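Model it.
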Amino acid sequence: MSSSARSSGSAISEISAGLYGAKKVVLGQNHLPDRGGAGVIEKRTLADAERRDWLRLFRSENVGPATFLTLIEHFDDAGRAIEAAPDLSRCGGRKRAIRIAPVIEIEEEITALCALGGRMVALCEPDYPEALAAIHDPPPILSVLGDTALLSRPSVAVVGAQNASAAGRPLAPEISAGTSRNGFTVISGLARGIDTAAHEGALGAQPSAATIAVIAGGADIVYPTENQAQYERIVEEGAVITEQGLGTQPTAPLPSAQPDGLRAFTGNIDS
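Modeled.
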């Protein structure tokens, strides 16, 4: 059903009861995941105002990927979803109401990311990683610093212990270098130990160096701090991606140690 044919009032009665339920993800050839009965999100490049609305809805309090996608599927437009979401949460009996993020905060985040040389990539846009889009309730929007073209390349994750063994530490860069030379993007988490070694090996695999750091905090937060130089090189020669807002401190030392980072890793691994 088109958004023009669906009023906010009728949508409340239709979807408030099931707004927060999980739905199966099924890929279509020309569309993003159909989450089981709410329609599909067509692949397209968003206008700046639309991307701002997507980010605003995703940054709203008590809106996670599942709620975001359900709202988009029913309203076809983030702006209309923003208008309807608070009433929907109340009518649905949700204890924690949806509180829409202030426009000024969203505009400040977008401006700050642009100042860092980064950009937002939404789930419906061509640059969004197809493998990540295929997982259940993928992140609606990513912050990316670096080369977005790497997001669509075949990829392999190389992750491991922070306290790497004497045998594992020199082996990781060797594996990553060979992987990169064979046309794969090496994905890791910028953590101490194996992650650092994995990025190091991929970056050294000239002329085909390709690596992505999936981080658990904001795109501007380097953790651990001793990896500042490697982070800067990855931004210059590879890419740093996260679904977190700027300034967000990581809640775990490895992205793979917390749900959001784990979802990004599993989504981005092709082989």
